């Protein structure tokens, strides 16, 4: 088997429980964080967001982004903070316009040429220096036993946005991948290199773990999944290690269904984040190879009640004995009652 | 194991190869049909469609629907025809308005009460008698070695339309299922009963196999998949057998990812249709239990070229030795070149 279970450097005993878990050490109680935990379900987030002229400016203002990152940590017992940023900062740093229109999601300008994108790679980490500053500010404030996560969109997911230029079901990008395989390979290689430098900068500034968000792994045939997801993730992980990045990595191939096992076997991340549709038995199989993270349905969290309680118990029972990070299977929804989050966290952290 | 591999009545030697394959007898060359093979990629379909005032009228005009069903059979060597109809005929027959707006997909009126829906069940098969007439017309024309498939939307998928009332990502329906589990169970039970009678009528009128389209199995947690998909399919299959339906059944839990195996083990259909994202090895595992059908990416078919050729070879090599029906993983796209379809069918049928 080509995968590695642990890093070459085991976690020091002073490492936060979240980091120890990523490195394969199951904890008495699973550490917990929620995707989009810094977000619109918090009134203090909505107030802070209103002070920035637009979403991109908000992400690139280190003081505001650090505050957004820390808001959920103050009121909720999350084991890790995730830096407040956006996966579309990379295309922007590569020279493709990105803006957000309220209620419509992201919009992107014309895709630059391969040559233009390639020429921009050396500037990416510097252009996104604000994210590094955010990380440094947060790490200086956060308690030592709580970890700080950096992240980036995975190459294929970012490329789907760059090709589609707006929210969609990705059909155009998936068609493009069938029609222009060499072009897509060239674009993915550029994103691998740019993302590696961006993430290396994040680790240097204080990120203690890095998550790759492959939000659009769904609907790909196995052959396309290998080409568009597995191969770029392998290349990115290798490049990060070449650049000296030693922090644990979490891969999140959302919507990949039965291909999650292939991902876990093929990509040398330390942890695989699982989405809502993951069968409990499939998660246990992956847990034999890696730490797993997930996979509470955000709709169940929003709904609350006995259905939510039962889901939480099911996950803890199925996965809680091995190395497991409790999380959602997708981002928390803006209209989720905070009381539901508090109740779940109380259950998970109280053991 | 509770599943059955074959029907109690094996296929007579005169049965079409497609039917023999569904009953577990692998053929020298896999039979082949394509979801939405009667559709907009054919110019003769577009011309015929233009003669009907609206889509529902078109579906419920037996002569026109029979002609649409037969059009692809005339010019392409498909092994089976599928009756031209729509999965939203059921809610319409249950008293919920359904109409189609060009470019926007289906629209539905207000959801009737549970009592109103329940009262409508005895009329469903009669109200959809036109579909039976279509089947009889097609069966009278089609060559004996080519099979005729009937179909219905599976209960959960139909219910998502009834709740959402328009095209969407089903988030509202999935939330509703968390919030109102008893109500959803009651609605699913109504759909099971109505669909059983509708499909029994189709079998009586000439359908030699029946496919259940669970087009919205995606994004469900395992517990919700069991409740919303597996349980209603099991109930529907049992009810069909009680009603004396003996034809083989195909279940298509589209987008269910790693839950496909659970489906195959739990639901007593004879064949499982697999979607594009199914790993080849996962398909082979399911093929040990059932006939499998699928799963060429419709985007690869539309793109054509060496990528398409390679996908076809991969599928034939991985699945062609066992009981296998060649098909797409999702419906054929309207702008698919007919030449691509011809080339794939020539390859599949020439062995």
**CATH class wording of chain A:** Alpha Beta
In the sheet with the most strands of chain A, the strands line up as 1-4-5-6-7-8-9
The most extensive interface between chains reads:
A-B, 41 and 41 residues
- In sequence order, what are the helices and strands of chain A, one letter per element? HHHHEHEEHHHEHHHEHEHEHEHHEH
Global shape of chain A: globular
Tell me the CATH architecture of chain A. Alpha-Beta Barrel
> Whole-number average pLDDT of chain A?
95
Distinct helical segment count of chain A: 17
Work out the count of structural domains of chain A. Answer: 1
Oligomer designation = homodimer
Return residue spans of chain A where pLDDT drops below 50 for at least 5 consecutive residues. Answer: none
Largest sheet of chain A: 7 strands, parallel
Tell how many strands the DSSP assignment of chain A holds: 9
What is the strand content of chain A?
A: 5-15%
Radius of gyration of chain A: 19 Å
Percent helix of chain A, as a range, is 40-55%
How far apart the termini of chain A lie comes to: 34 Å
CATH topology of chain A: TIM Barrel
Instruction: Output the structural class of chain A.
Output: alpha/beta
